[in-house]
Structure formats: C-alpha cells, structure tokens
Design brief:
three-stranded parallel β-sheet, single chain, 54% helix, four-stranded parallel β-sheet, Asp/Glu_racemase_AS_2, Rossmann fold, 13% strand, Aspartate racemase, globular
Length: 231
C-alpha cells in the first residue's frame, strides 16, 4: 500500500470526510482491521481564505508547496489536495516538489466519461467556477463541456460555502437555493452536476436532484485508495 499524503484543513469538515471515506474504502477492499497508510498536513484555513479573496495566489502556492514538501519528507508516495479550489496550483506542486498530485478534476472527469456524458454543470467557489484551471482539465483530458451558473447564482453558491458550509452550518434554505440552481443548469443542458467544492456534498445529496451528482470528495477519496493499492 502506498502512503497517501493529504493536504487538508480547507476546511477541516471536508478533510474529516476524506479521512473517513479513505479508511472505509481500504477496509472494504482489504477486509479485517485494515486501514489506510496516510499522512495529513492540515493548514490554517483562516489564512488561506484571506489570501484567496485578496488574489494572492503566489503566496498560496508557496503554502501548498511547503505542505507537500512536509508530506513527501514524512514518507508520502503521492499527494491529494482535500479541496477543489487549491488544485489551481497542482502542477506547481508536482514541478517544485517532484511528487505526483492525484488531480480531483481528472478522477471526476473519468467518472463522467463512464456515464457517457458530454456536458455537466459545475458548482464550487467563484474561483473554481470562473477561472479556467478546473474546467480546462475536464475539457482537455476528458472532452467534457462545462456550464456554470449565472453571476448572481455564483455569488449565492460562493457565500454559502464560506459563510455556512466551511463553518459546519447546514441550512435548509441554502439547500433549496442550491437545488434551484442545479435545476436551472439542467434546463441549460447539463446532463449531470459536479459538486466542485468538497463542502457541497455536506449539503446536497443525489436524492435532492433529478440529474446525476458527482460528489468530488467521495470520488477523490476512493480514487486515492485505488491508486494507493494499485501494484
């Protein structure tokens, strides 16, 4: 079993889900008392959030590279970043640290391809929805077209992520807002929806909407186990 290095804390609520799913998956695959060989370096999300909203991505890259170096030095064989937005610097981590980063958009794209879908909606932070780093991976690696909510809807999604979900607040009114936005994406031609923020699956489940949901947290965590166990 390869040792999984997790960069967590963005937020710790979703990192907790990663740890749970990874260990449950190892037990399911290997049985007995097996659990995952893993290391987690957890950052202070307050600092990350401030730098994100100040668009200080170079400073954020330095933080992420430092975290990856610590994990590599600790014995990690590969890295997973326990958040969608910070995959913006996934290639920087690989190039500067010399360690594989299992990219969340790539493994999610593989699941979309398995469903034979060509167009999906994307929910996430404004950074993930509006910048190209995530959509480009889905398009170039998997030939998947991505549509995003309108500007007002993007603002709603973003605010709920940072002001509620990252603080562990689950609000039924916010859930209804997300459902309406997903339904609007379906009307625009989305065959499925990518929950492109690791906190969103805390709020939205498959049974809440009529189109297929791609829970990036679960997909990424299970893919990490499969990669760790692959000989």
């Amino acid at each position: 079993m390869k040792t999984i290095g997790l960069i967590g804390g963005m937020s710790w609520e979703s990192s907790l889900e990663y740890y749970r799913v990874i260990n449950e998956t190892v037990k399911l695959k290997l049985g007995g008392l097996h659990s995952a060989q893993c290391l987690m370096y957890s950052v202070d999300f307050e600092q990350i959030e401030v730098l994100q909203h100040e668009n200080k991505w170079d400073e954020l890259t330095n933080i992420m590279v430092n975290a990856a170096e610590r994990l590599k030095n600790g014995g990690a064989d590969f890295i997973i970043i326990c958040t969608n937005t910070m995959h913006k610097m996934a290639s920087d981590i690989e190039n500067k640290v010399g360690i594989k980063v299992l990219h969340i958009a790539e493994v999610t794209g593989e699941k979309i391809v398995e469903k034979r879908m060509k167009k999906v909606g994307l929910l996430g932070t404004k950074f993930t929805m509006e910048q190209d780093f995530y959509k480009q991976v889905l398009k170039e690696k998997c030939n998947i077209d991505v549509i995003i909510p309108d500007e007002n809807e993007r603002e709603i999604i973003h605010e709920i992520i940072y002001n509620e979900l990252c603080e562990g607040i689950i609000n039924e009114v916010s859930k209804e807002k997300y459902i309406r936005i997903i339904n609007n994406l379906a009307l625009k031609g989305a065959e499925g929806v990518v929950l492109g923020c690791t906190e969103i699956p805390l709020l939205i489940k498959q049974e809440d909407v009529s189109i297929p949901v791609f829970d990036t947290t679960t997909i990424h965590a299970i893919s990490a186990v499969e990669f760790a166990l692959d000989k």
